[in-house]
Design a protein that fits this description.
Layout (H helix, E strand, L loop, with lengths): L1 H14 L3 H14 L4 H8 L5 H14 L4 H9 L18 H7 L7 H9 L3 H21 L66 H12 L2 H14 L4 H13 L3 H14 L4 H14 L6 H10 L4 H13 L3 H14 L4 H14 L2 H14 L4 H13 L3 H14 L4 H13 L4 H14 L4 H13 L3 H14 L4 H13 L3 H14 L3 H18 L2 H12 L8 H14 L68
């Protein structure tokens, strides 16, 4: 059968080191049938990462639980524990094997790899899996103790049934496309590949080429589709749909110039053919992202109000120019035409995200994800939404998948770096993400802000100042950027500048939590300058904030500092005022006579009490007036 022949070609490509060709052939096979364990096993030998290899091997085990090669591969990848009952297949003797036996008697993984390689077609798969696991180490230390063994694999012949083209269709040799980039996203998800639906499928009895082109389209063989549609346009030059599908094939092959020419030929052939305007808009967007495609899209919708694809593309256009209200209006129409389309929910989630309706955005994004897990933009939206909700771990998961395929999105790299930063133990990885973001967009506010904060966490004061100064200038209303810059200046021992920046940050604080941050970090800076009085004032203001808005650690620091500065009060008795002994008249008679004593009252300054200027008041007994925190909500 054709699939058997394609598998044989893939196996030969693996053996010849043609990884890209092998990956393309296996991707086609898996797209047509994901339940064949052989396809997954061979794919595991040529994917780029351990995560992808493990995924493929687990798919094999799910389909064929006793597959020995897959089990051993998962053991070597550290996923499954070693199984003593899992033994290598007995070695098949070969003539060249005896000559090699004398070379070395190593044990361990290297010997296992060599033994597996002797087994032929079935066991070669396991050898390739092992090579993927141990390849870097083998390259570093040399193959098999410094002797490189070249093995010519023996493959079983797979019988193939030739598929003959109709006699009225010229036989054309179709080149095999080379897949470039990461393993297709659909392969790692439960969702199956869904081809673009056909707009029209007009009978074309004159030529078989059109029907063959449609079959190639539905199976994803776009090079073959081009060949057949070219033949169809020559046979039926007045058919607009043949030019349209030729344009679709070129667009899917990332050749927008040829696609544009084909779409314009379709419009020239039939000016009322709505999909051609849609196709021309898509081709122009690829050629010039700034081109105004609204005219073509509105024309397509006007010619065919039921063309859901045109409404979706119009929605995407409104999103791209930031017209979110109009995008939501367009989606109301689109949902009626295509209620099950995952793109409806994907676009709605983007619109709600930008209008601040985060709960509705998350609900729509999750619906899109459940309907189709191959829409990359949904991963970006989910990543941003989880980041906004404080779920940094989930955010980094979705953003990592998105960036595996879209590597030139500066905003996504910045968001991914922020998610790693907020995980608190991944600062180094976060810095790498910020560097990538800034290499794509040197004015990325988020990347500059959080790279500066990462430098701050790493104790690199001046580097933090450099980034945070630029970020603060980009957004002077950002409390985070302002406070971060103040802390960085303090870390760089530029204390006067830091205090001035803290004062500016205080004016931007809108919550008790932000006010607490100002008090805490500014007090630290005052302490570094020796300004104890100002530090105490800030710490006292911190203690007066509602306790639920201040971390327990900060409260303890403030209390301990104030206690350390507070001397233990001692009771010193005040001196008794000096008084004169009253003069009492001596009685002149025998009668008792009590005289009213004359008491001299001392003046206030003669009491013996020290002057106020000589007393150092204790903060606990006579506190200084403290700042009244502004409860800003």
């Amino acid at each position: 059968m054709a699939d058997d022949k394609m598998l044989q070609e893939a196996i030969e490509a693996v053996a010849n080191g043609q990884r890209e060709r092998a990956r393309d052939l296996l991707t086609r096979l898996l797209r047509a049938n994901q339940s064949n364990p052989k396809y997954w096993l061979w794919m595991s030998s040529i994917v780029d990462t351990t995560k992808e290899r493990v995924y493929c091997l687990q798919k094999v085990i799910g389909l064929e639980p006793n597959n020995r090669a897959a089990k051993l591969g998962l053991v070597l990848d550290g996923i499954n524990p070693p199984d003593k009952g899992l033994q290598p297949i007995p070695i098949v003797p070969r003539n060249w094997e005896e000559a090699y036996k004398a070379r070395s008697l190593e044990s361990g993984p290297k010997k296992l790899i060599r033994r597996m390689a002797y087994l032929g077609a079935g066991v070669l798969v396991l050898g390739l899996i092992l090579l993927g696991f141990l390849g870097p180490r083998m390259k570093t230390y040399g193959y098999f103790g410094g002797v490189q063994l070249t093995i010519t694999p023996h493959f079983e012949t797979v019988a193939a049934t030739a598929t003959l083209l109709p006699t009225n269709t010229p036989r054309v040799v179709t080149p095999t496309p080379t897949f470039i980039g990461p393993t297709p996203l659909w392969m790692f998800l439960e969702a199956t590949y869904t081809p673009t639906p056909l707009y029209v499928n007009t009978p074309h009895p004159v030529t078989e080429a059109y029907r063959a082109g449609i079959r190639a389209f539905t199976s994803g063989n776009f090079e073959e589709m081009v060949v057949f549609m070219e033949q169809a346009t020559r046979a039926e030059p007045q058919s607009a749909d043949t030019y349209y599908y030729l344009g679709e094939a070129y667009l899917l092959l990332d050749d927008p110039e040829k696609a544009l020419f084909a779409y314009e030929k379709a419009i020239e052939t039939n000016p009322n053919f709505a999909p051609a305007y849609l196709g021309r808009a898509k081709a122009m967007t690829t050629l010039d992202p700034e081109f105004d495609i609204e005219t073509d899209l509105t024309q397509s919708v006007a010619l065919d109000p039921d063309l859901a694809a045109a409404h979706l593309e119009l929605t995407a256009f409104y999103l791209s120019i930031g017209n979110y209200d109009q995008a939501l209006e367009a989606l109301e129409i689109t949902e009626k035409l295509a209620p099950e389309s995952p793109l409806v929910y994907a676009y709605r989630s983007q619109a709600y995200l930008h209008t601040g309706e985060y709960e509705m955005a998350l609900e729509a994004a999750q619906q899109a994800y459940e309907l189709d897990q191959t829409i990359l933009s949904v991963y970006l939206t989910l990543g941003n939404l989880h980041l906004l909700s404080g779920n940094a771990e989930e955010a980094s998961h979705f953003l990592e998948i998105y960036l595996r395929y879209i590597k030139n999105d500066a905003n996504a790299w910045a968001a991914y770096g922020r998610a790693l930063f907020e995980n608190e133990d991944q600062y180094e990885e976060a810095m790498q993400a910020f560097d990538l973001a800034l290499s794509l967009d040197e004015n990325s506010f988020i990347a500059l802000l959080y790279r500066g904060l990462s430098y701050l966490e790493a104790g690199e004061g001046q580097l933090a100042v450099n980034d945070l100064f630029i970020a603060r200038n980009f957004d002077r209303e950002s409390f985070v950027a302002s406070l971060g810059l103040a802390r960085a200046l303090s870390l760089a021992e530029r204390y006067n500048d830091a205090i001035s920046q803290f004062n500016g940050s205080e004016q931007l604080a809108t919550t008790d939590q932000q006010q607490a941050e100002v008090y805490y970090w500014r007090a630290k800076t005052f302490i570094a300058t020796g300004d104890v009085r100002s530090a105490v004032e800030d710490y006292q203001a911190l203690l007066e904030l509602p306790v639920e808005n201040v971390s327990e650690e900060w409260l303890e620091v403030a209390q301990e500092y104030i206690i350390q500065l507070t001397p233990t009060p001692t009771m010193t008795p005040s001196p008794i005022p000096a008084t004169k002994t009253p003069t009492v008249a001596t009685p002149t008679s025998t009668s008792t006579m009590t005289a009213s004593p004359t008491v001299v009252t001392p003046s206030p300054t003669s009491t013996g009490t020290p002057a106020a200027s000589e007393v150092t008041p204790s903060p606990t007994t006579t506190p200084r007036p403290s700042r009244t925190p502004q409860n800003k909500h």
